[in-house]
Amino acid sequence: MILDEQTFTRVVFKMTPKDRFCESQCIAFLLDVEANPNMLMSYLHVGQHGEASIDFCIDCRLATPEQYADLQTELTSIGYDLKVCKRR
Questions:
Q1: Percentage of the chain surpassing pLDDT 70?
Q2: In sequence order, what are the residues at sequence separation of 6 or more whose Cβ sits closer than 8 angstroms to the Cβ of residue 18?
Q3: Average pLDDT, the chain
């Protein structure tokens, strides 16, 4: 049987840039969730869903599996079936 619809959501986990105001934190970029032009849907522990610019995504560095494990668990618990990717 061939499925016509994608059954998973591609996600890239990254670490936000650290600055003098806040520590780096893990952010998920949900590649298959609709967003405005030049934006990506993102998800953080605090704030949850929101949009982030593609430029911001580029400025973030890849997160390690240890860094994104909690966020991946949270996303799975709210219904996402994730396929982790390393790039957009």
A1: 92
A2: 24
A3: 91
